[in-house]
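S1.2 Input.
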Amino acid sequence: MFIKKIEDELYHICKENNQVGSFRLMELQSGCGQIKEMRLVEQVAPVQILAVFELIQSYAQEQHFKELHVVSHSTNLNRILQHQQFVLEDVEKNLWIYKVNHKQL
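S1.3 Output.
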């Protein structure tokens, strides 16, 4: 899978040149981004959702983002975010934050 930038904040998630989803990555203050409006086609298996988040996290690292923010609207997404090392920062807003690792391997 790979990410293809379509517009300023709109990205497509592609697999073998077929679009399997899309999301918006809104730039926030000082190197932070917020993932919004993620949509995946129905044929995407649950395990592929984890791969999509890993892909976005790698992209954020390449683009030198400091953090990724997600406002969750479901307990299933909460579990995925927790698995992907996002931390629940604001319980009231259900805001999860991932601190991007910029260490060189």
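S1.4 Remarks. The radius of gyration is 13 Å.
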